[in-house]
Specification:
single chain; 422 residues; Aminopeptidase; 12 helices
Length: 422
Amino acid sequence: MATCTLVATVEPASERTYTTAVEGTITGTVDALDKELREISLQIHDNPELCFAEYKAHDNVVALIRSRGLPVTPHAYGLETAFSAEYGREGQVVTFCCEYDALPQIGHGCGHNLIATAAIAAFLATVSALQQSGRAGRVRLLGTPAEEGGGGKIKLIEAGAFGDVDAAMMSHPFPVAPATRGTHGVAYGNCLAVQAFRATFEGKAAHAAFSPWLGANALDAVTLAYSAVGMLRQQTRPTDVIGLIIENGGASSNIISERTVMSCNVRAKTLRESMELLDRVHKCLNGAAMATGCTLTIETIHDPYADLRSNKTLCSLFTETMGAFHKTFKCDLDSMHDGPYGTDMGNVSYACPSLHATFHVETPPGVALHSAGFAAAARTLENHKITMEVAKGMALTGWKILSDEAVATRMKEDFERDILLR
């Protein structure tokens, strides 16, 4: 195992001094590396890359970690733009998930450059804590490509990347929303499970005036399917969301449409509910195909994204830690905050205890996530500083898991209880 020194070692005089010294090392490491962390954030932001094509981001982060004297495995787990860096020995394993893919046309309108920078900072700070303390424990930085529709973390789960992980953490920037106004973000929250597919209706072409009865109208099929799903919405849960668009309605108005294409996004509060809703949507489409004499082919766009099963102990620890920085995070363990977004971090939370905190960054009024305005906000120095405070909170939370067996036990017990509720 390669070694490195990120900050000066401080000899503890007592257990209380020991804890203070290590926590000071964590925050001091983030501060000391601020220039390099700012640079990597800008490198990722200014070179936006789509899912599974994040080559520059991958190479730049790998180079940064290697420059600190730490071993890195590039192109990890069979994914060209994934990587894994690790430090430590035995004990608990804490993983920080590092996202860096962008959105089509609008670049980093989801702020993944900030997500990556927070994870990198938290990893390097935790490495420093392990070096200073000499404790057992392992900390890992996992490069997780293709969150935006590619399900990169799902492929990493299948490849075994989370098989030995005791806690997985990441934090996501968000604009201030009415439900979270007055706080600095949300620690204990969920998100919607997401299913996405593309449906193709195949009919039979014919002249629309001369012999329309010889055709089978795929446009009728896709229109009927759209209407049937619209009627279905009246009988769905308030937390169910169905989004449809018609990508291709036909070739010409004087030709009975031979082929039409629809894409669909189905969201529900839990993975199980999303599967049930998906089945009902499929029945609407099958009925439309049958009624119009067309054939239907359904193609999955990406693996199902699960809902987020936030770990109570992890969320409480993070909230308490951020409070020391005078940052208030929403963490009501009796009433989880509902997040109307989707993420493949939800699948990770089904595999191991997880934290997916959301934190507020400064944006002009009316700026929404997944917009050019939010991409601009993800580049500002002010929001970089906010991200570094969150990184310190994640690192300190990770350190508590690594250094306190009782905390780690509570976290695992919470996870096991949650399994029974799914």
